[in-house]
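QA checklist item 7 of 12: single-chain prediction sanity check.
[x] sequence parsed
[x] length recorded as 146
[x] structure emitted
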Amino acid sequence: MADEPTTALDVTTQREILGLLNQLTRKRGLSMLFVTHDFGVLASLCDRVAALYAGRVAETGPTREVLGHPAHPYTRMLLACHPDRALTLAGIPGSVPPATAQPSGCRFHPRRALATSECAVVEPARERAGEMHAVACHHWRRVEAA
């Protein structure tokens, strides 16, 4: 498990660390759980990705699929906040709930413009968004206006 192993490193050192981790996993046939907020690292190192929000898995799938065709509103909004991926930077309204006061239903519903009463009450089940792509959202096909 590698939790933000390249945070605050210069680009050269980051490349060396990522190369070593990649070499170790491939050479020894290992898997690695890699926690990061860096989409560039995700795209270059990870085969699969899970987007988490407030302790719950919002979306999972092959990295290219999730980054190229995000299904969960949180994943979409998160990618829209990244300077390498968006022409105009967006923000995500509201704030992450404290761990001691999680909302009922979908944990992301207080921050989603198109949330419904169902979102506030019922925790969404995981649905297929592709062959190996899953999303936990009642209304993931509905897209918020930019």
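[x] summary fact logged: Residues 129 and 135 are 6 Å apart (CA to CA).
[ ] second reviewer sign-off
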